[in-house]
UniProtKB/TrEMBL annotation:
A GO molecular function held by the record: FMN binding
Database matches in PANTHER family: FLAVIN REDUCTASE, FMN REDUCTASE (NADH) RUTF
Name of the protein described by the UniProt record: Flavin reductase
Superkingdom to which the source organism belongs: Bacteria
Key words of the record: Oxidoreductase
Pfam families in the cross-refs: Flavin_Reduct, RUBY_RBDX
Originating species: Holdemania filiformis
PROSITE patterns from the UniProt entry: RUBREDOXIN_LIKE (PS50903)
Xref: CDD domains: rubredoxin_like
Length: 210
């Protein structure tokens, strides 16, 4: 079985967000899909260890921002490689509030959805939320980001909690980011180096032994 076959499936890249009891959470996902048209229903699958997943379990609702190709790696890194328990991911960003009172990211977003959970499916390591669309709108007409574009053009990595994560072979030499897995090739890591994927500082890198 060739696991790379899964990379040929068509995915988008989305920011999933929610709010409960005054706290906000958000993460990157590539598993948001439309499942029915009447009524309009969608699904998203998230890892059980994800803070956003756990908050959606409590709130029963979530918002989705469909990312454009112009989305920066800093934005993707903020929502994809940090935990909402440790970081206010929405601070300083251009955000809106949807029909259910949920925050959604407007920066580099082509459209957005407000979703009310109607069913959950336990998938072992992950949970699938099936939701009715309470509201949606087009925000911009720029090309949307596909998962293939993210990997091939942006040179992006896949978080370990993602359903499509596959462990990459270790490279000889260099330094590996402990947050997102990015590898800096070189014997000496500059002390002021910033990870281009998740914006982690040099102190978050470990030496890869030959």
């Amino acid at each position: 079985m060739d696991p790379k076959a899964f990379f040929k499936l068509s995915y988008g890249l989305y920011i999933i967000s929610t709010e409960n009891e005054g706290k906000q959470a958000g993460c990157i996902a590539n598993t948001f899909n439309q499942v029915t048209s009447s009524p309009a229903q969608v699904s998203v699958t998230l890892n059980k260890n994800n803070a956003t997943e756990q908050m959606i379990e409590k709130s029963g609702k979530f918002a989705v921002a469909v990312l454009e190709q112009s989305a920066t790696m800093e934005l993707i890194g903020r929502f994809g490689f940090h935990c909402s328990r440790d970081l206010d991911k929405f601070s300083g960003l251009d955000c809106g509030i949807d029909e259910q009172g949920l925050p959604f990211v407007k920066e580099h977003a082509a459209s957005r959805f407000s979703c009310k959970v109607v069913k959950t499916v336990d998938l072992g390591t992950h949970v699938m939320f099936i939701a009715e669309v309470a509201g949606c709108e087009v925000l911009d007409n720029e090309p949307v980001m596909t998962y293939e574009y993210y990997h091939q053009v942006k040179n992006g990595k896949t978080p370990k909690n993602a359903p499509s994560y596959q462990e990459e072979p270790k490279k000889a030499g260099g330094w590996r980011c402990l947050l997102c897995g990015y590898v800096y090739e070189g014997e000496i890591l500059p002390p002021d180096f910033i990870c281009p994927i998740c914006s982690a500082p040099a102190s978050a890198f470990e030496k890869i032994e030959n």
